[in-house]
Amino acid sequence: MSTWQTLKLVQDTPRVCTLVLNRPERRNAINRQMALDLLDALTQLRQRRDLRVLVLTGEGSAFCAGGDLKDRFDAGASEASRQRNVLLDALAVLDGFPCPVIAMLNGAALAGGFEVALACDIRVASHDALVGLPEVRTAGGFPGGGGPVRLERLMGRGHASLVVLTGRTFTAAEALSMGMVDTVHSADRLQHETAQLAAQIAANSPLAVSQARELLRRSADLDLPAAIALSREMRDPLDHSPDALEAVSAWRERRPPIFQDR
Q1: C-alpha angle 44-49-55 in degrees, rounded to nearest 5
Q2: Are 102 and 53 in contact, with CB atoms under 8 Å apart?
Q3: Domain check: are 214 and 162 in the same one?
Q4: Of 38, 43, 40, whose CA–CA distance to 56 is shortest?
Q5: What is the tens place of the pLDDT at every residue in 165-204?
């Protein structure tokens, strides 16, 4: 793996890694270097056939405070646009990532930081985390990293409009009630609960998990008959996969199945 200036990689277990946004002195705000590092890291990690779950979190007291406004203002509008495009490329890699990605929100996840979290599959938040897309209130633009689109698909237009058009910041409890995050834990339990969740997923068939993840994403834009047809098309081949054969053998032998890596 490359050495990144603004990220660090922690190997939690043989099949679970944590990628840490590592600019705590700037509350992990995204500058051009972090956007480039994130794109490079995700591109490399997607090649790892042993990786079954990736956790994404921030160093220190914040997950990610959004774009680094000082860096952006110093660089000018053209550079800000280039940085946003790099971040969009990184989030596109997340969209097509071969295994589930859990965002562990250890603190504030705002603006571009929350857009990164929204591109993950599951969001696990500390009870003192804050989330929001404040760009219309603070930056004179709407969120440019795909946040409005992902929110609308996640929560529906009403809730997404409330978040995007007011620019409000929401507590973890509010975010949970609206569907912006999936679970909330005390700060001292957050890492443990996230690790437990990652371990549950990592123990499952990587092929089945990968296909189910793809189905969830691809079916979001389809009507029900088309989504069911896609489900059938993707599900039937799994009955003849090595993982299915291992599951049958494990059931017969009354033992937990042992699934091979991708």
Answers
A1: 65
A2: yes
A3: no
A4: 38
A5: 999 999 999 999 999 999 999 999 999 999 999 999 999 9
CA atoms within 13 A on the CB side of 135: 20
Structural domain for 97, as ranges = 7-202
Check whether residue 103 and residue 232 sit in a common domain: no
End position of a domain, from candidates 202, 217, 242: 202
What's the domain count of the chain?
Answer: 2
Q: What is the distance between the alpha carbons of residues 43 and 231, in angstroms, rounded to a whole number?
A: 27
Phi, psi of 61 (to 5 degrees): -95, 0
Q: What is the dihedral of CA 53, 58, 61, 64, to 10 degrees?
A: -120
- Rounded to 5 degrees, φ, ψ at 123 are -120, 120
Instruction: Read off the CATH number of the domain in which 235 is found.
Output: 1.10.12
| pLDDT tens profile 94-133 | 988 999 999 999 999 999 999 999 999 999 999 999 999 9
Interatomic CA distance for residues 88 and 86, integer angstroms? 5
Q: Are residues 175 and 235 in the same domain?
A: no
Q: 129 with 246, same domain?
A: no
Query: Same structural domain for residues 186 and 62?
Result: yes
Max Cα-Cα span within the chain:
65
Q: How far is it, in rounded angstroms, from Cα 135 to Cα 129?
A: 18
User: Which tokens in the block code for residue 127?
Assistant: 């009870």
The residues carrying an active-site annotation are 115, 135
